[in-house]
């Protein structure tokens, strides 16, 4: 989604901004731009398309010591150069970048800016005109910015430069992430620490409703009433090397390969030298006091929630409900008496999930965020955090975060179930079973060549495809269908195998790929029966099956793992199938159209 970078006090501003924008590319965007200035000159360069297109337009003369840059994922107005940020005020004096959505932009335009001329269709252009409007009413830039912030409703992270004061960047945030980086002799602004890690690992968090004045050697944080706020920087513990692709052609493949190592790292992070699970006691106490767990998440994280329901319920005996964030906040079901909320979110920034957290916080319900990003918004705003320790996930299609989320909830369930003295939890040897699952993942990952052939055979030209399964296999089907559709653009759906005959089977025609996931001995015969039903109607069927249930002719054989951990292994072939089908179709695996890595608008 949209990204912001800014820098003040460094003569190499252009290069640092370009580099920062490149680091934000993975988040998804469709246009980009930078504003750079020194005392005498200023430059505004914008482009539709990739950062490389923008860089091609940035001439040698575009140099300065202050600047702001932006990658835009279109919300209001098409992804054109005109709508790309930065935007300028009516006279051109103020320059602004913005992430988020201004909800009352029509009212602001009608109430304050009826006489102004606008060149694009963005809500951002209205915000920068508004700042100038208040300056024309006699306010200083700072006061005008503050007044504008009070008038603006919606989500935003802003970076503002006044050409009459080329030593200051004004920033503010509400619901959209923004950080200040403290570098050696200069300061930076970014919506994601990764953008500026080459400059510094010292960052200041900004909270909603705060405005920050950033100069070369000072950072002043205030609330909108002008009260000063003191805050210590934190050290971002991200290894830059983790962000590199190395010898891999795509991040997605690297991240699929990293899954077994992530499992082993999580075992190390969450167990002591005796193999005992270590989870914060306060978190366990809070869960012990609850009568129902509500998992709230979007997309792949939601699928991970479904795939984890069984392990939580079996090991803890606490009922679990899994909900879509975008639905839950506005359509809240009747809650139990003592609910506990778990927010699953790789990025920790998903606006749909955050709006639910804000509501459950207001209602006073306890919450845990399970995330890959320390210090992320959902992590800061929930009562407790469990980290995935998966390393940065750069590919838009989430893979290692999915399996790490299931592992994290398994670890939590083991600790909770033991605390409740549940026999299944006491008998579950977490270190051993997660280790076996990690080995099983390795086995599947080593089958790349075979899976590549299958992807070419089944999915090179098809318009649609189906995954089917029952129970956990159904939840994994939903996830691998999401993987396939989001990067290969094949219309793929995951269905409960038994449901197919109640309607969806009408879509099956000659050659339609239908891939069955079979890991449960009880339902295996039924799913096999469903595969035969579609086969006799022309479907091109594929069987992904646990070794102990396999039959001659089955194509992908899964190593046997603990029944509660089957999704960790059964998801891998589907991830690889999506990857190779996308390569086969000549598409960019890491940057699928229309998608963003971190979805910071509702
Ligand atoms: C799909 C994918 C998305 C995310 C979803 C939630 O591969 O990555 O469906 O899972 O946007 O994101 P997080 O987990 O960051 O809240």
TrEMBL record:
> Which key words are in the record?
Aminotransferase, Cytoplasm, Transferase
Tell me which residues make up the SIS domain. 283-422, 454-592
Primary localization class, coarse: cytoplasm
Carries keyword Heme? Answer: no
Q: Where in the cell is it found?
A: Cytoplasm
- Which residues of this protein are catalytic? 2 (nucleophile), 597 (for fru-6p isomerization activity)
> Record's superkingdom?
Bacteria
Is the keyword rRNA-binding assigned to this protein? Answer: no
Q: What is its EC number?
A: 2.6.1.16
| Segments forming domain Glutamine amidotransferase type-2 | 2-217
Q: What class of enzyme is it?
A: transferase
Q: Which GO terms label this protein's molecular function in UniProt?
A: glutamine-fructose-6-phosphate transaminase (isomerizing) activity
Against CDD domains, the record matches this protein to: GFAT, SIS_GlmS_GlmD_1, SIS_GlmS_GlmD_2
Catalysed reactions listed for this entry: D-fructose 6-phosphate + L-glutamine = D-glucosamine 6-phosphate + L-glutamate
Q: What does this protein do?
A: Catalyzes the first step in hexosamine metabolism, converting fructose-6P into glucosamine-6P using glutamine as a nitrogen source.
Q: Which HAMAP family match?
A: GlmS (MF_00164)
Listed under subunit, the entry gives:
Homodimer.
The protein's name is: Glutamine--fructose-6-phosphate aminotransferase [isomerizing]
Provenance organism: Enterococcus alishanensis
* Organism lineage: Bacteria, Bacillati, Bacillota, Bacilli, Lactobacillales
